[in-house]
Amino acid sequence: MSPAYTRRHLLRLGGTTLVVAGTTGFALPALAASAVTADLVVYGATSAGIVAAVQMRRMGRTAIVLEPGDHVGGLTTGGLGYTDSGTSASIGGIAGEFYRRVHARYHGNTVTPDSPMRLVFEPHVAAEVFDDLLAEEGVPVYLGVRLTSVTKTGNRITALTADNGQTFTGPMFVDATYEGDLMARAGVAYTVGREANTVYGETVNGVQLRNAHQFTLPVDPYVVPGNPASGILPGISTAPVAPNGTGDDRIQAYNFRMCLTRAADRIPFPKPAGYDPADYEILLRYVQAGFTGPFFTTQGVGNGKTDSNNHGAFSTDFIGANYTYPTAGHAARQSIVADHRTYQQGLMWFLANDPRLPATIRTATAAWGLAADEFTATGGWPPQLYVREARRMVSAYVMTERDCRGSVRAADSVGLASYTMDSHNCQRVVVNGVVKNEGDVQVGVPGPYPIAYRSIVPTEAQCANLFVPVCLSASHIAYGSIRMEPVFMILAQSAATAAKLALDAGGVPVQQVNVAALQTRLRQDGQHLQWPPVTPGEIILDNAAASVTRGGTWLTSTAIAGYYGVDYEHDGNTGKGVNRLRFTPSLPAAGPYAVSLRWTADPNRASNVPVDVVHSGGVTTRTVDQRTSGGQWVPLGTYTFAAGTAGSVLIRTDGTDGYVVADAARFVPA
């Protein structure tokens, strides 16, 4: 057991270890019983699983975490110490608290909602922070509990049964695994692989033969160079490469995030049993063609240690070796994990020792080694395979590239994501007689974007009491942006909060939770639900708001990016002077408010849209140019309003020279 857990009481249950921290609300005999009940049963002790349970405890309910393996904290404690965050300021709630606690552990400062975050850290530090959270909130964590069956009554899960015969019951459940095992056993729809671009109107999904992490020098793919009849080298697919945008069942490559050091006590890279130099023949030929590295990243995380990841055309990603992993059973998965370990350990040994490589490469690699004080139970090697993507739920709302790019914005936001749309390579292929990688995509997003509540819950008919904050409903390429550890924590906190609200409402289906009430509580707990963050007292009226009134005919659209909410409206460039739309807020207090308007810009828009601001002093008319300044709040001025609904913003179409758009209006206390 890791030193991170020495402060907790360990209770052995047959082949299972139960980690009990602090006051749990359970007596130990109850936790050891053949049937254990909690308000929230979380499957998967990933960062998301921990945060879900902690949030439920903070809201006054009981929660337990079941972990099929023996590692707590997922990738966050498993080597991924150089956090992929995108816009770090968009990280709120317990996720933000976690990174503030990390900073405090390094610097000794007090943790407050405004204290600094540290997003780079050594694995053992992350483990200690999670240990503190679990201990403070009294969360029991069961280790080595593998799910064997799910019992449902109608559309509700009633019990999970583990391989040791123990059952876990409760009214609410969270699947926090990277694989979506609970979701699948509960009969929830899911997919594996890459959708075609045509499925969701995307541009970078499906097959993608691109230039990043690609061979930059020619490498012959055949066992005997130049002789296709001699066979293909290991790891190369012989299947023809489909056109870009074609869907398939391939998934992006996995690897281990190594914690390396140059310290004198470093552990030399081991030569694994089953090492086969043929596995690295492609790399050898690449080096012989002139490639000199780097062969892996050395991103520093503190105290001379790294979070070392894949880099370049041939590196730590074991491309093409994980296709069956998402839906495989335990034994098959363990075999795949072992194959990945053998491949990556073999790669490092090859780079440090193979005499066919230049001495400069061998010396540079051997200067690194595994950190002796990390992952001590596994010889310095990370215990957690980086499962970048496995099953993905298919629910009422599927997050897509359009969400990532901001061309659509989910109104039922329960958190933000902001990282690049990132897919690692999915296959190694032959193109025009040389080796190429296929599948790598690295396309940025314009800024933080909302993740829909509907994307973390199944459809009600399939399951009414389950949350899926990790294997959420998203296309392959959108998942590539969302699949970051801070986002998993954010969504898990939101899931647990929704679970509590569902219970408080008499156990309503999670799909029927009042989203407005959920968002209010999430904001109280420090979650960011829109970007830029909400200004205190701010009132935003989307075009879909109930208080919006219209004259004439208005058409909804999502054609141009940058709108607020789920769509915007336009006048069809007809009915000039007849079509008009009014935003009427309900202001809580009289006083001055800064008023802004939002639209989507395009050359076909009107450049002379009259906008009437109705305020306590009368009516002020402004003219806005909707051919520019799209996707942002455009100030109309500051005006004094009475409390209530006497004030408004009216968009008119009189004499306009193009399409007039109505998207949203904002009122901020001045």
UniProtKB/TrEMBL annotation:
Pfam family membership, one: FAD_oxidored
InterPro entries: CBD-like_Golvesin-Xly, FAD/NAD-bd_sf, HdrA-like, TAT_signal
Protein name: FAD-dependent oxidoreductase
Residue ranges occupied by any Golvesin/Xly CBD-like domain in the UniProt entry: 539-668
Annotated keywords: 4Fe-4S, Iron, Iron-sulfur, Metal-binding, Oxidoreductase
Tree of life domain: Bacteria
Source organism (scientific name): Micromonospora cathayae
